[in-house]
Amino acid sequence: MKTTIFLTIAVVLLIRSSAHSQNPTYILDVNDGALVAPNIFEFDIEMTWTNSGVASNFEYAGGQYFFNIDTAIKNGGTLSYIPQSSDLPSNMRPRGPSIFLNTVTTGPPGTYQLRLAVNTFPGAGSGFNMPSNTAIKIYRMRLTTTSTSFANVPINLNWRNALPNPFTKIFAYVGTTNTDISTPLTHSISIPGFFVNVPYTITTKIGIEGLAMNNVHLRKDSVKIFIRDSAPPYQILDSGTSMLDSVTLTATKVTALTPGNYYIVIKHRNSLETWSKPGGEPLGNGNYFYDFTSSASQAYGNNLILKGNTYCIYSGNINGDDIIDAEDLIYVDNDVYNYAPGTNITNLNGDQIVDIEDLAICEKNARALRIVQWPGGSLLPAGDLTFRTRNFNSNISKDVGDMFTGSKKTIVNP
Ligand SMILES: [Ca+2]
Ligand SMILES: [Ca+2]
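^ thats the input. predicted complex w/ calcium ion below
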């Protein structure tokens, strides 16, 4: 009997102790970094409650948030650190954003502190109830330099998590007690590489078979330049339309992608989509030049044709899919028959009319069944179709040996 009473008391104490002393746990993360201008960088500070069901609640009482960053990013200008949006009610937001130059006693030489001081504690019962497993934005912060751009060096953003003061601390009402629940091991920075990227220019030199004559183009034309991941599924990470100069044969694309290997992919309105050579190109270290005209091997699968001294991408892909075949040839043939003007997409050589010269280019490539060469194998990803010039009904068999007698295809989405 005595033992039973003792055990009962022990269990009751254990339950009471458990219910009242379990701290909430959380992840405090920096993410969604974005260079919104060459001299403006923004990022989110987010908190997520991670032990719902163990801790009965997470009543956020307040927090102070401190980072170190490399001073060199200011690029000769002066930095400012300004809060943007927050999910917290205004009285719960950290205050007094400021920048402090570290000394030998406060931090590593050559670093600034980014500071956000604690809010006024609201009192138990008046704190902010964190939802379970849902990221709450403490603040989106904006870092600006008065220089025209940041220096292209790593920002080296790191949490200040330990002495010397000041460092990051999080408080919650546990029961009714305002409690330091800080766990530096769950403070993270989730911005891959976390470089401040000054935009840089990719210049591509491109020959287009139909337009090329004596190593220049008969006229200017626009091309689309895609920057794609070098790893499967080779996602499009950036893209743009650029005018291709008829003399220099160059077109440019400005990007701020983080340093890494990427494929450069060219699409022209009536030519075959062409990828840069296997392995991808090391972008992100300043301006970059890529020459599709210097060698067949500059294109994935050597998918270029020499015209004069210029390697060119194949012309004659009228419907914008991944092959030059009878479907394309039928369109050129129809327009030749109708004396279509040079503004037509079937005009491959850029002169004033669709005629036998255009037909000859398309027929040569259709007979060879020129197809897009890329690292993923045969067919391009379905998503690429959104960039196609036209979509055609493909339910009609391709009759290579009898190209001129095929029936005209149905335009599904002209
Ligand atoms: Ca085609
Ligand atoms: Ca023509």
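Residues 317, 319, 321, 323-325, 327-328 surround calcium ion (ligand 1) (CB under 6 Å).
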